[in-house]
Amino acid sequence: MTTTIHRNAFGHLRGDFRGALLRPGEEGYDEARRVWNGAFDRRPALIARCAGADDVRRAVRFARDQDLPIAVRGGGHSVQGYSVADGGLTIDLSLLKAVEVDPVTATARVAAGLTWAEFDLATQRHGLATTGGSVSSTGIAGVTLGGGFGHLMRRYGLSADNLRGATLVTAEGDLVRADDDLLWALRGGGGNFGIVTSFEFDLHPVGPVVLGGPMFWSLDRARAVLEFLHEWAPGAPDELGVALVATQSPPVPALAGTPVVGLLPVWCGDLAVGERVLAPLRDLRPIADLVRPMPYRAVQSLLDLAASPGLCSYWRSLRMPRLPVDVVLDLAATLPTPLSLLNGWVIGGAASRVAPSATAVGARTPGFELRLIANWTPGPGDGVAPTPGEVAFARGEVVSARGEVVSARGDGHRDWVRRGWERLRPYADGQFATFLSDEDPVTAYGESLSRLTAAKDRWDPQNVFRLNPNIQPSVRSAR
């Protein structure tokens, strides 16, 4: 798609803009348009790498004057590639890296371009943290605005629960501080209401050493593990966070290529108590047990391999009171590629004690969140090829754990996700906006939707910010 930008308008923008403006063919453009998900190879008409909130304001007003769709890039980890749009304007926040940590009040004010690795580095210097994304290269903005799951959520709630303030650029290009109603919408409603340029978080004592690491069981032992998890996890102390995974590529050389079900427990509390709490899991005889004291920052990167940049990725998710064990095990045995996986979280603790009306996230009843994630190497029509250093696999047919040949084409992998998602839906009671892909966003918001729509009507009635899990205004007003 080719978009013509009026030369005079572009010259005026460039004269006032402190950051970098990149157009097709210019040095740095191709690198700047690359996103985490290799399935998307889009060419925006202009990339505005903003140096501050004033640049964001100028970029929004320019896009509206030129009738360009706006894509917003923080960490660039959207599974749907929302950070770039063909023929549009990408407003890139990745240069916004300011961090202010106040250890006395246990709060942090941070710019929207930070990744969780950068956030954790700054806060852990003071022995503090807040619930954040479990892949260290993800941006704080997308995770928080979608709700925000992480290892600390059973003790300290979701990322959105810890969001105490925000400053954002509106659809009119104005810089405002979120009032109570808008802040409620930002706590789970995504990027529908403006471009947040700075966040303020509550922090909590964490680590710097916690007890954590993966434990793996072969598929023939997985039923007992999952059934035990149903009975054990709801009563576990808040200090314990638990992620779950089924994969053919566990990060253990001796298990490479072995289909396994794993748990990733993280204990944020007294280490000796944590050892006693985790003893029942060890009684289930895992084939690999990598749980040990380690820095919290190291725990935050344990799942990075599953989200390596340049791979094509597609997922769908659901929220379930209980896992349908037979279906989960069947899906675990038919993963379409070596780096595809089932991934999820045990829901409960502090995250489930927040009233549904307190944030836009809605209900967080104790249970499970589960995603079906297909990852594959880019091929013709799938997007851009990985650069050196990115994870790549030999192209061709892929054989599942059952010996079934699965097409290496992206459409086949997406079909596996969609079919599995349909099989799981009868057992689900909703889903979380944090992990929305191409599902209807209405399914994630439930009773929050009418209030979110009212906020959209107030702040973005023309749906300028629509490249996201979109909440549409009730009536789009004329400019």
From TrEMBL:
Database matches in PANTHER family: BINDING OXIDOREDUCTASE, PUTATIVE (AFU_ORTHOLOGUE AFUA_1G17690)-RELATED (PTHR42973), FAD-BINDING PCMH-TYPE DOMAIN-CONTAINING PROTEIN (PTHR42973:SF39)
Protein name: FAD-binding protein
Keyword Flavoprotein: yes
Species classification: Bacteria, Bacillati, Actinomycetota, Actinomycetes, Micromonosporales
FAD-binding PCMH-type domain sequence ranges: 40-206
Taxonomy, superkingdom: Bacteria
Cofactor: FAD
Family from the record: Belongs to the oxygen-dependent FAD-linked oxidoreductase family.
Organism (species): Paractinoplanes ovalisporus
A Pfam family the protein falls into: BBE
Residue ranges of coiled coil: none
Keywords associated with the record: FAD, Flavoprotein, Oxidoreductase
